[in-house]
């Protein structure tokens, strides 16, 4: 049925007043949405974003450029609407929920804050598993619940965002483990490490992979628990729930992509619901995207995370839907079409 | 003063709650707009697009896949709002004017149509100059007038669009001549030529370059008249007028980029006002962009022209302005910033 719907969508696209395939990726996005919806009736998506925030044991080991307190400080920034993710979500009329799934700080209630703390950050995976298996599953369930709530409230396009000082380290560790890569190949500068800092980060991940080398790669939740983060687990659950409800998900940078990647390891049937919003500067992201055969929509040298690249790419998705719905056909416009 | 404004813009960007440079090209776009406006007070641009339509002598020689009548048919499609360019301009609230600068058809009056016919298409540049020098200048003036009108009506970001069966051939000829490239290096499949059609197109351009080999490359208007099109000349005038009035211009695919490229040959001071909206599949565009040191904002495998890639990229420009204007600073948000 996916192939059949793809063909029907292409027939429609080929009747529109443009040379065949001339709208490139826009046509692909429209066709993929038709497959996901199982229909040629596309509507402009209503977007929902959730920023999952959590702390990391590695941040206490001095791997990151910013101190761990910044995670909580950025949560307040999200709640007051001043972060890049807030700005870019406003541009595409997306709600932004902020989910404390593991920040080492106690937050008061706030309108857009969801309390779902599983632990006060992960343990250092250089010395022990970052999470227990139960914590990882609880974080996944927390993410799934948020996805369900957003979808129940009318969202039909979900963005997973994140905040957590130390979470590129965790994402690179997951990429290195699952893809069997040398950590140096999938580790970047995060918020801006210099050469020395980058070398320390790579060594840290190498040490962790050595400690956890007996993990069973088929036990995806076990690997997630050992090397992941609470927000990465939450994103995996969020993405899986969205896919299971037939709702597309736009992955963002390396952390969000790590969450989507783990989701696909757990349940490969989720993959057709995932889009990649942008190519991050963090090189581990490209490796995981390749592993999922996903091509990013944008490439703007961004490396902020939070969900920003995914939010920005919503404009491309909207354009694809508008093209599919609003363009005249050769017949309706009285334009000479293709020869066949 | 440009350097000074760039520094001031960067100081502001570096104070926003994100790692330095983490928003990549968005930061560059915002800084470039500050330089253009000579101010750190950016406002969301009001967008105006003009689609310059004209016919080409080469289309009568069978170089193109579509018959020449399609130019006029597409003008009607633009006027009734059914073309891809209309759809994408609606997405970014841009007005779309359609300018008959040289279509071989008589149009009735219509609300968004501007009559500015200089000739009923160009001559075949395989046998004679496509235009007289006077025609090229008249078309440039027509484009300049449209730019002025759009700006007078409140637009402060202009998109040059185009329609003209045969106009990729003309654009590739201009690229080959000015950049001293073998035509095969800068000629693409246009609306979808097969290998044989592409080889014919390359031969056609080679023949034209041979005929016009004594042109003085410093006489940019002379070269434009010999190898260009009425819509390409109009775009050059439109882009030059916008730049002279301090208004940025987003170039689109190979034809629009050829217009911008000729504008820069005539007046290099216009270049700082130009952005490149997207990387076209037509390879001549990349060569001209390299010649202007412009990097496209999007790369979505598009090759439709009309202005579509530029219109789509307005979302990126809007995002850049919003980031610059709306993000909290480290100080205002109480977030620990950079160490220095």
Structure commentary:
The first copy, chain A, is of the alpha/beta class and 340 residues long. The first copy, chain A, folds into two domains: 2-42 and 324-333, Orthogonal Bundle (5,6-Dimethylbenzimidazole Phosphoribosyltransferase, Chain: A, domain 1), CATH 1.10.1610.10; 47-316, Rossmann fold, CATH 3.40.50.10210. Helices cover 51% and strands 13% of the residues of chain A. Chain A is built from 15 helices and seven strands. In chain A, the strands form two sheets. Chain A has a four-stranded parallel sheet, with helices on both faces. In chain A, helix 7 crosses helix 13 (283-292). The model of chain A has no long low-confidence stretch (mean pLDDT 97). At the A-B interface, helix 2, helix 4, helix 5, strand 7 and helix 14 of A face helix 2, helix 4, helix 5, strand 7 and helix 14 of B.
Topology readout:
The structure is a homodimer of 340-residue chains.
Chain A (H helix, E strand, L loop, with lengths): L1 H14 L8 H14 L9 E8 L2 H4 L8 H11 L4 H8 L3 E8 L10 E3 L17 H20 L4 E7 L3 H13 L3 H4 L8 H17 L8 H8 L2 H15 L4 E3 L2 H13 L7 E7 L2 H10 L3 E7 L5 H19 L3 H4 L7
